[in-house]
Amino acid sequence: MRPSTALRQKNRIQHLRRSARRTTSQWRRTLTYWLGAVLVGVVAVGFAGTADWAARARGRLLHWDPYVMLVVVPAGLAFSTWVTRRFFSGAQGSGIPQTIATLHIENFSIVNRVLSLRIAFAKIVLTCFGLMVGASIGREGPTVQVGAAIMHGFSRLLGTASVSARRGAILAGGAAGVSAAFNTPLAGIVFAIEELSHSFEQKTSGTMLTGVVLSGVTAIALVGNYSYFGHTDVDVPLGTAWIAVLTCGIVGGIAGGSFSALLIRFSKGVPGRIGALIKARPVAFAALCGFVLALLGLVSHGATYGTGYMQARAIIDGSEHYPASFFVLKFIATVVSYCSGIPGGLFAPSLSVGAGIGGWIEQYLPHTTPGAVVLLGTVAYFSAVVQAPLTATVIVMEMCDNQQVTLALMATSFLAFGVSRMICKHALYGALADRFMEAAHSATPAPIYTRSSAAPAVETLAEQVEKKD
């Protein structure tokens, strides 16, 4: 054999060995991410079951004596705020703004803290505790942060050095969280593109799509293939029925835009002596918020407590009819719950408020199917709050298992989005994420965030980073 031939064979063998090692490494990485996506589905189902148990425990308290909530809610919110600020900084609020921010923050020491498994565990426990004591919060937003934390944890376990790959894992985890929480895989994909990343990169799309599918399949395997709001067989034919599209789009847009504007304004801090008092006594302020929630619960006969899922489903299927005061009181209860600073999401309460708006409007529109008007009100308010019209359309469409109203849902969603933009120029989650990122991008080693009553998670997190570094 000639030397040149032997050399070529040697090089070919070395190339095959390197390819084999690379293929093995890629498969190990892929299987690890698949395992992470399955775990997201398992945790999301467990989270949902625990949240349902918490709601039942609250129901037993209300059945025993509704007035006991005048003590339970203030004490519960004060305790949750104290525990969160003292031991689990980073667990406050929805979790979606934090997830969005981690996709853009360059300092991964901050990302590792925000998306730590410790914070994810606290997010689950404290959200369920908040639901048990009567806060108007949801579990879906926290599930996004928990899913992102799980996938980020697997990314760290693999020793991933690529920034784009680590962010791809976070994006996949957040999308998988939405998919498993609502049993809406398509909505998980759209949410990741429209709200979390605002883009669709080829490098991360495969990981995200696979994560969404696996987490969704896991949830279905554990609890069955269900629809969040059951099946609704309604339609909105072209013609006079589309008056409901205009009405719901405008009313829902005004209400949702006002809600977002209020929360963004509060996140910037309350001026004057009241703001100084809130900043100095956050636990006492949380107790005051709890007392307000208890009063709202007494006035509404308990309808404003918790996620509002049961009320929304009853309004959609027509089994219950609530007065206009329901969505007004639920709106206030959700604002108060957020302002208290406890962990908890906005998705489910927003769907409940939207269903209440639709249920109120439908009585004035006899020429449109009542159930269809309720769905339009739901998508309008939800779209106006999150300012993500495609996500809102797909979520509501999948949750009610009805494709007949897709066109009307989309038209209402985009109209509500436009109205909301006139009231609130910035999307709620994006605005809150921007404040988080401003904190992360400020001077180092100087404090990366100035003290603000609205963002204790960030300010405490900054102090922890400084001590660590």
TrEMBL record:
UniProt-listed InterPro entries: Cl-channel_core, ClC, ClC-type_chloride_channel
SUPFAM superfamilies: Clc chloride channel
Membrane topology term: Multi-pass membrane protein
Main localization category: membrane
S-adenosyl-L-methionine in keyword set: no
Location(s) in or outside the cell: Membrane
Pfam families: Voltage_CLC (PF00654)
Membrane spanning stretches: 31-55, 67-84, 169-193, 205-229, 241-263, 283-303, 335-361, 373-397, 403-424
Gene3D superfamilies: Clc chloride channel (1.10.3080.10)
Entry keyword set: Chloride, Chloride channel, Ion channel, Ion transport, Membrane, Transmembrane, Transmembrane helix, Transport
Protein's name in the database: Chloride channel protein
Organism: Asaia spathodeae
Taxonomic lineage: Bacteria, Pseudomonadati, Pseudomonadota, Alphaproteobacteria, Acetobacterales
